[in-house]
Amino acid sequence: MSEVLKAPREMQDVRIAPSVEWSEEAKAAQKKALETPKCADAWMNLGLELRKQMLFREAIEAYSRGLACQPFHSMLYRHRGHALVNIGCYAMGASDFEMCLRIDPDNWSAWYHLGLSYHLMGEYALASEAYAQCLKRSYDDYHKICCTDWYCMTLMKMGKINQMREIASRITKDMVPGEAYGYFGRDLVYNGTNDPEQTLEQARKDNDHMFATGAYGIAVYYEYVLGDEKRAMEILHEIQQRNTVWSGFAEQAMELRLQGKAK
């Protein structure tokens, strides 16, 4: 019998992972949490401060401490799930979002990120179901625009182009996107209002993360709707060259596609 290979400690033990110095806000939040160790919200606030520094593993630990105090705290599951997705633990993230929704079935953010988790896992049917529920709970332009974007990309990858166009047609140019302007441009491409190349050129003027947000859906549209895989790959490589926010959702979806782990 051949010897079973075992992972070395540095691959598994998060206690020896390198870190960065915590911000003053994170240190203050830690002090508050340690002074009130049974306060779930104090641990959640610490996690949120750590997340700002992309210290996701440390944030997950803080959220878990909070859940040890209050295991039915829906927002702790929502925030921990988000951090898990940020580091590529998609199934674990989905589990937390599912738990959040058992406690708070109308949590828009949990439905949205549950769909995202399944999308990044390549479980598009499950993602579609989550986004359908999310869209039912989208009561203003901002939430409709955000949900429609990932919902439409999911439907494209399922080959449901007619359904995608019907969903996208609900987004109109007179809507007010707020911070969802990156998604807004993509939605208007999906429904035929905007030209994909003009939308891409506009996205190039933004910061790296918002460029990825604006460009990834254009790549998906080229590949799955227009059948132009070559142009899609060019756009994905352009996102890769500006990939400074490695934890972003569009950035992760881009990497999965270029690595051949998603289709």
UniProtKB/TrEMBL annotation:
Pfam families according to UniProt: TPR_8
Signal peptide residue numbers: none
SMART domains: TPR
Residue windows of the TPR repeats: 40-73, 108-141
PROSITE patterns for this protein: TPR (PS50005)
Claim: Translocase is one of the keywords in the record: no
UniProt-listed SUPFAM superfamilies: TPR-like
UniProt keyword list: Repeat, TPR repeat
Protein name: Tetratricopeptide repeat protein
The species this protein was found in: Candidatus Pullichristensenella excrementigallinarum
